[in-house]
Amino acid sequence: MQHAPAARPSPTPAPHLPPGTTTRPRPGTTTASHRTATRPLLAAAIAAVLALAASACVEGGRGTEGPVGPVPPTAQSPAVLPSAELPPVLTRGQARAALVGADDLGETWEPTRGAATWRDALLKATAERTDCRRLLDVLYTEELFGTGAATAPRATAALDDVDGGAQLHYRVTSYRATDLDRTLAWLGTLPDTCGRFEARDAHGTARDVRVTGLPLPEAGDARRGLRVTVGDTAPDDGEDPRADTGTDTAGGVLTVDLVAVRVGDDAISLTNGTLGTPADDATRTSVEVGADRLTEARRQGRAQV
């Protein structure tokens, strides 16, 4: 007798899974695992973005706050160095407060009426030796600390002695102390390197130039002074060219005091020239009064910050 085939259990329909998936994950497992795995990656990405942003901010701020680490030396001229390399300068008002005036020097002094004629007649000259030529340029232009914008004077004054014929020019400059001291040191070498030399003007006229050190009162942090005489070429007879004190440039002897005093990152410089007897008191008074006023201007400037 034939039996009917046993009924086969109907297959359970397979769950619909994405291609390549063999087992359905437990509800909630995939989402939680994915979130757990991506959190460290997201945090790392955010940290990288923040680090880049912080680096960009630091780079962008260096132009105003100055370099954080040591700055390697460069071969650039001081006049073209970035402003971040330079110390804060005095304001124009603070620099003017450090000037000397006619009242400081005596009743014979007054504001200048114009450049003295001896500047072109006797100082516009050149010399063979480099240092001596530079000295003549400084005496004529009065740009002792350089010709760039960074060393331009913050304030100036010009005064005339109406009785003695002297003319005094005075400047206040802000710059790096190391560079100011380098200029002072150069001035100190000139009595040896340019103690006596011959200069020639544009017409070829020879001039006898002599340079000696000038004692100064104790003022400021550092100071240096020179006395320069410029006269007609004379035989080497040992005579002092200042013996001739005529008031006319023809045959006269010009005497010029060149002085610089540093106070911190600021300096005063002056020339005091005459075809007559040198006005020693005016030079010394300008150094003492000027250094004191510059010191006070710097103190008040720091207090206002």
Topology summary:
Elements: H1 29-65, H2 92-97, H3 102-105, E1 109-111, H4 118-123, E2 125-126, H5 130-141, E3 155-161, E4 167-174, H6 177-193, E5 196-201, E6 206-213, E7 222-232, E8 254-263, E9 266-274, H7 280-304
Antiparallel strand pairs: 1-3, 2-5, 3-4, 4-9, 5-6, 6-7, 7-8, 8-9
Features:
single chain; 305 residues; alpha+beta; Protein Transport Mog1p, Chain A; nine-stranded antiparallel sheet; 7 helices; 35% helix; globular
What assembly state would you assign to the polypeptide chains in this entry?
single chain
* Mean of all residue-level pLDDT scores: 77
SSE string: HHHEHEHEEHEEEEEH
Principal-axis shape: globular
Number of domains: 1
- The CATH superfamily title: PknH-like extracellular domain
CATH topology: Protein Transport Mog1p, Chain A
* Amount of helix: 25-40%
Give a count of the beta strands, DSSP E runs of length 2 or more.
Answer: 9
Largest sheet: 9 strands, antiparallel
The CATH C-level class name: Alpha Beta
Broad structural category: alpha+beta
